[in-house]
Amino acid sequence: MASTHHVDYRLLIEMLRETREGEDVAQTELAQTLGTTQTFVSKVERGERRLDPVELTEFLEALGVQPEAWLKKYLASRRELHRKQEVRRKVSAL
């Protein structure tokens, strides 16, 4: 089944999952740190539950990652993705 999420959001959740795995943190451990359930973390990583900027920051901090540095890496990856392929803008002019 094709994803309904914009390519930029798919990149974000892919990088978030890779960050968690790179820090060797299980979904259950992250959920416990966040005070939520493993199901919530799983839904975020599968794209079934969108994160707002505050939640993204909390995820990253719970993983012991500096949000500013992570966002810098995300933006660099996003630029590279856009350079390689034409990406339809999420927000279009009125």
UniProtKB/TrEMBL annotation:
Pfam families named in the record: HTH_3 (PF01381)
SMART domains linked to this entry: HTH_XRE
Signal peptide segment: none
Positions of the HTH cro/C1-type domain: 16-71
Domain of life of the source: Bacteria
CDD domains, alphabetized: HTH_XRE
InterPro entries from the UniProt entry: Cro/C1-type_HTH, Lambda_DNA-bd_dom_sf
Name listed for the protein in its UniProt record: Transcriptional regulator with XRE-family HTH domain
